Amino acid sequence: MTAQVAVFIASKNSNTTHRRVLWRTSEVDARKICSDERTSGRSHMLCWTAHYIDDPEINRYVRDNGAYAQVLADHDVTILHSFGAHRRPDRRLAA
């Protein structure tokens, strides 16, 4: 089984004490997502970590608004877990 990592939003001017996690993916997929220039802007970027990904005090799943849908499709990313994943049949989830 491939190790899972959390892909989260890092914001320049944020003072949150937790990670805003979008998805859980494989490390290989996370590297593809986070190295794509479309996943960073002037005040934010997507990052990934394998540390403490099961700790709910650190990680808060946030709703995916579809802003990175094309990035996920272009890299054929498999989302292993996301906020409300069980309600979104349009997103490819790992079995």
Describe the structure.
The chain has 95 residues and is an alpha+beta fold. It has one domain (4-87). It has two helices and five strands; from the N terminus they run ββαββαβ. Strands 1, 2, 3, 4 and 5 form a five-stranded mixed β-sheet that branches. Residues 86-91 have low confidence and may be disordered.
- The count of β-strands is 5
Q: What percent of the residues sit in helical stretches (DSSP H or I)?
A: 10-25%
Give the C-alpha Rg.
13 Å
Largest sheet: 5 strands, mixed
| Alpha plus pi helix count | 2
Dominant shape: globular
- The total tally of domains equals 1
The class by helix and strand makeup works out as: alpha+beta
Q: What is the ordering of alpha helices and beta strands?
A: EEHEEHE
What is the terminal-to-terminal distance?
Answer: 12 Å
Query: What's the mean pLDDT score?
Result: 89
Strand content: 25-35%
Describe the secondary-structure layout.
Blueprint: E1 4-11, E2 19-26, H1 27-35, E3 44-49, E4 59-61, H2 69-74, E5 81-82
Parallel strand pairs: 2-4
Antiparallel strand pairs: 1-2, 1-3, 2-5
